[in-house]
Amino acid sequence: MNIILNKEAPLELVRIIDQLGKDTQCVDNVIIGAFIPALASNKAIGAYEIATGTILIDLGNCLTDNHWMKFGMLYIPGVWLNAVVAVFHEFAHACQIANDIAVALLTENDAEMLELIEEEAMKDAMEHALEYFTHNSITPPLQEMGWLGGQIAKTLNGVFHQIPLQVAEELDAHKVGAVAGLTAAVSALPRFDERNTQLLKDNIDQKQGGVKIENKYYMTMAEFIAAAEG
């Protein structure tokens, strides 16, 4: 499997891709770029080209997609989760097709089946992400995230004078693997009820989960994904 870097990619993302390539043998090429023209229309963070066996990962769209922030996640880990999920998701699609060529023949007339295929791929991606983040809780340092890290730093520097406290929170949380303030996440994650919230607070106080920064409770990435997926 070839890994083609049109933008300098996070070292850890390249490692994940390389290992998936060895484990699955479903993909011929992975191209990593930013604001890829082929993905511009729907601002997708990833895609799989069946004809060439090529996965596209768009770091630019990972940077601007705020999906996870809507559920209370901080900016830096949200961008990183976008990139990781994009990789797992597109590998899932590639393996679906490798295991059943009929999937490649589906058209827009097969909307219900396409929806099921997409749901299956996303479920697989989130399961792999949960497993990954259970063992790799810290988002890589920005200096190890290549172009993506540079753009994140540029963004934070650009808004520092407007929201210095939020930027400081991002940087403090980044160092210790905190990805979402518990209060913000709970209000945005309907499956996370009052009992679970108190349980997580108790675990954090007992240093058995989560993170506490200046008396504020935070979730780790694995805890957030588990809560989001229910």
Number of helices: 9
Oligomer: single chain
Q: Kindly provide the radius of gyration, computed on alpha-carbon positions and rounded to a whole number of angstroms.
A: 18 Å
The share of residues in extended strands comes to 5-15%
The percentage helix is 40-55%
- Shape estimate: globular
CATH 2nd-level architecture of the largest domain: 3-Layer(aba) Sandwich
**Strand order across the biggest sheet?**
1-2-4-3
Mean pLDDT: 92
Task: Characterise the protein shown here.
This protein has 230 residues and is of the alpha/beta class. It folds into two domains: 2-135, Collagenase (Catalytic Domain), CATH 3.40.390; 157-229, no CATH class. The chain is 54% helix and 12% strand. It contains nine helices and seven strands, in the order E-H-E-E-E-H-H-H-H-H-E-H-H-E-E-H. A four-stranded mixed beta sheet has the order 1-2-4-3. The relative contact order is 0.13. The model has no long low-confidence stretch (mean pLDDT 92).
